[in-house]
Write a sequence for this structure.
């Protein structure tokens, strides 16, 4: 659905097409009870709306308010659909869905493992920053001093992360993953792909095809 | 896929994502969000770099919106440049790493400008857009402003990324680095 929204945003005729799409996506997200997702996406797009207005309307060489509105609506629609996707994303259901269809394990694992590792690494970066400050690191206002501070902050993070890879590789191997003859996984609780999900997917695909046909005609 | 690669890629992607935090804390006008990609390519070769770049952009898109997914091209391009640098011992000294960083900055800046101008009409909500705005206000044509802003910011960013990846790769214990060859 998110991919479909992105495709429609760039194929529907501007400016009315992207504006109607944005309104439709926001409406669907609100009906799904995810007003927070719509609000977050609107906040994410706010800077872009400002820059679009500045570059297309205020400054010379712009393409006018219509172009700014169309591009802002495109970005708003895609951002809303993406934030809603994150809002409903369940990592274990995602892994199970991959396993249930017999798809390769690696792509799903990369996504889920990264989403789990990212907050951990951010926390570690914060810890390193505090430790280096306790040891006398002063960032200061000079750009050069800030650039110099990258090494003591980043190097321990990079080396520590690489050193951990072996432990994780061993853990994966002990669970029968990786290698050339990785065994086929079975899902613990496969999430059902309901007929409404199927209808929404096909409906979006048809809408994209129709928009593309109209655009090319 | 070898388990070591299976374990390395999510860690490298997480480095890309965590660098945003470090940069914010230092208040630097760069991204450094390709450091994990360069490190993976410099350590384990092009496949690791390309996969790290692809997954980075997928996960980032999930957090920040699939609007920015076209910039996956930059991640893939930098992975290829880093793999080439690895092949020619480009990380062996600081000077070589910086030179490869400048080269990567020019290549990525040009690609980034093309994507920014054709897909996003020059507006990508970053510091680059602010520079584009200033250059436009000074009378430079929009395409030229986007190109100059992208190249200028990317050279600085990639230079730091390659220099930092070089420091990390040279600091790794030989036995650890040898496991990826």
């Amino acid at each position: 659905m998110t991919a479909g929204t992105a495709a429609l945003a760039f194929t529907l005729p501007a400016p009315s097409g992207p504006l109607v799409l944005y309104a439709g996506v926001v409406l669907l997200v609100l009906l799904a009870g995810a007003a927070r997702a719509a609000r977050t996406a609107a906040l994410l797009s706010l800077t872009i709306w400002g820059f679009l207005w500045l570059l297309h309307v205020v400054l010379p060489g712009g393409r006018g308010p219509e172009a700014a509105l169309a591009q802002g609506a495109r970005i708003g629609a895609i951002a809303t659909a993406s934030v809603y996707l994150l809002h409903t994303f369940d990592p274990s259901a995602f892994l199970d869905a991959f396993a249930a269809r017999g798809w390769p394990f690696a792509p799903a694992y990369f996504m889920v493992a990264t989403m789990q590792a990212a907050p951990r690494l951010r926390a570690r970066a914060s810890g390193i920053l505090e430790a280096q400050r306790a040891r006398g690191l002063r960032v200061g206002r000079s750009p050069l001093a800030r650039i110099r501070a990258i090494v003591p902050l980043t190097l321990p993070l990079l080396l520590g992360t690489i050193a951990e890879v072996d432990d994780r590789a061993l853990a994966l191997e002990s669970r029968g993953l990786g290698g050339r003859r990785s065994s086929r996984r079975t899902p613990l609780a496969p999430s059902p792909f309901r007929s409404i999900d199927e209808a929404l997917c096909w409906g979006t695909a048809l809408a994209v095809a129709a928009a593309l046909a109209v655009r090319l005609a | 896929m070898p388990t070591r690669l299976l374990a390395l890629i999510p860690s490298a992607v997480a480095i890309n994502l965590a660098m945003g935090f470090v940069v914010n804390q230092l208040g630097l006008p760069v991204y450094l969000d390709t450091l994990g990609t360069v490190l993976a390519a410099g350590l384990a070769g092009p496949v690791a770099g390309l996969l790290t770049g692809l997954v980075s952009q997928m996960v980032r898109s999930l957090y920040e919106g699939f609007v920015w997914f076209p910039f996956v091209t930059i991640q893939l391009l930098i992975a290829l440049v880093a793999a080439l640098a690895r092949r020619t011992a480009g990380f062996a000294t600081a000077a070589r790493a910086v030179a490869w960083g400048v080269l990567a900055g020019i290549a990525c800046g040009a690609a980034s400008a093309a994507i920014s101008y054709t897909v996003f009409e020059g507006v990508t909500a970053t510091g680059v857009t602010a520079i584009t705005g200033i250059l436009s206000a000074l009378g430079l044509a929009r395409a030229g402003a986007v190109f100059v802003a992208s190249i200028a910011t990317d050279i600085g960013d990639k230079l730091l990324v390659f220099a930092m990846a070089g420091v990390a790769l040279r600091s790794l214990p030989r036995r650890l680095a040898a496991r990826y060859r």
Chain A touches chain B through 74 residues (CB under 8 Å). Residues 132 and 152 of chain A are 7 Å apart (CA to CA). The radius of gyration of chain A is 23 Å. Chain A has two domains: 2-90+193-216, 93-174.
